[in-house]
Design a protein that fits this description.
The protein is α/β, with parallel strands linked by helices. Helix content is about 50%, strand content about 10%. It has a 6-stranded mixed sheet with strand order 3-2-1-4-5-6, with helices on both faces.
């Protein structure tokens, strides 16, 4: 058995490895000139310019409590986190199948989840800001598509570069050099380069904050599942108000064993499936918020030290709880590979 400090170090190192895993790959390619500059720029009409898909906003609720296997939970989220922080969050309206910009936040389950930090790793607004810039730049379609693809690549490379830890001017200059030849001059490229550098830097600060919390949370870890879910639903309601067209996803990496307020392991003893569902429905109560578009993904819910029969009961309870709130799209995955 690991000592408490050894286990904390293992969790911290595992989480850090997940966060930086994509950074090593990001330095593999560098941008080169992509053809001659089209001197005869043509304005794009409203009809010709591809629309940006509705943004996707996700929150991961992460459980590192004693009833789970923390490193297995972190591993289950790993690939999903990598894709967000390495640059895939920008989206791509010019792709054959347009890709939406995405935002990601992390909320922890602790003994009192109201005390746990909510950490935003990336914002869907970055992709939308770049889209707005390109629309206003009077580029023809080829130029707009080339610039967008170049910005995605620069975001991936900047994430793996020490430039985001230095001053912003150095990062912007590096980003412009990475963009290579475009239909716009270097001065005009400073704005999108600044947007990309700012996004990568904010993600870096967020990941450091995340690593710091995982390594030394300074608050008691526990299983206040309901508290964490309620906070997250409130945040996702705000996200919907800020961006009415946003598609929302709640990913829960937990065994869902709630200990605060309602001790599920004891409360569910002797209850059959019907009674368990009824209890979940009653505890959820009624909500005025509309969650009909919200999808929930349960990840690594079996990464638990709790017996399988109780886990099945607990999952029934939470499924009925969420259904009562109007959330009907609930799926279970072993990890976020390909998410």
């Amino acid at each position: 058995m690991f000592g408490k400090n050894s286990q904390k170090a293992l969790i911290f190192n595992a989480f850090k490895a997940i966060l930086v895993g994509s950074g090593a790959l990001a330095l593999v390619m560098s941008l080169t000139a992509c053809g001659t500059i089209d001197l005869a720029k043509s304005a794009l009409t409203e009809d010709a310019f591809p629309p940006m898909p509705a943004p996707e906003v996700a929150t991961y609720v992460l459980d590192l409590s004693g009833s789970t296997y923390p490193m297995a939970q972190l591993s289950a989220l790993g690939s999903g986190i990598d894709e967000f922080i390495a640059g895939e969050s920008l989206g791509n309206p010019f792709a054959e199948t347009p890709v939406a910009p995405r935002g990601l936040s992390i909320q922890f389950i602790t003994k009192n989840s109201a005390q746990a930090p909510r950490i935003r790793l990336v914002s869907s607004a970055t992709g939308q800001d770049l889209y707005t810039y390109i629309r206003a730049s009077n580029l023809n379609m080829d130029g707009a598509k080339q610039l967008w693809n170049s910005l995605i690549q620069v975001r991936k490379e900047i994430w793996g570069s020490p430039a985001i830890e230095g001053n912003s001017a150095a990062c912007i200059d590096l980003a412009i050099s990475m963009l290579g030849r475009q239909q716009l001059l270097a001065d005009a490229l400073r704005e999108p380069a600044n947007i990309v550098c700012k996004d990568a830097t904010q993600t870096l600060f967020a990941t450091k904050r995340l690593e710091s919390f995982v390594g030394n949370p300074e608050i008691e870890m526990g299983s206040d599942v309901e508290g964490a879910i309620k906070l997250t639903l409130n945040n996702l309601t705000t996200a919907k108000a800020d961006s009415p067209t946003a598609r929302r996803t709640l990913v829960i990496a937990s065994d869902l064993v709630d200990q605060r307020g309602l001790n599920l392991p004891k409360t569910l003893v002797g209850l059959d499936t019907s009674a368990t569902c009824k209890l979940g429905t009653q505890q959820a109560g009624n909500s005025n918020a509309d969650f009909s578009d919200l999808r929930v993904i349960l990840v690594g819910s079996k990464n638990s030290k709790i017996n399988t029969q109780l886990l099945d009961q607990v999952q029934t309870y939470w499924t009925c709880y969420l259904n009562q709130l109007g959330i009907t799209e609930i799926n279970q995955q072993s990890d976020l590979s390909g998410f």
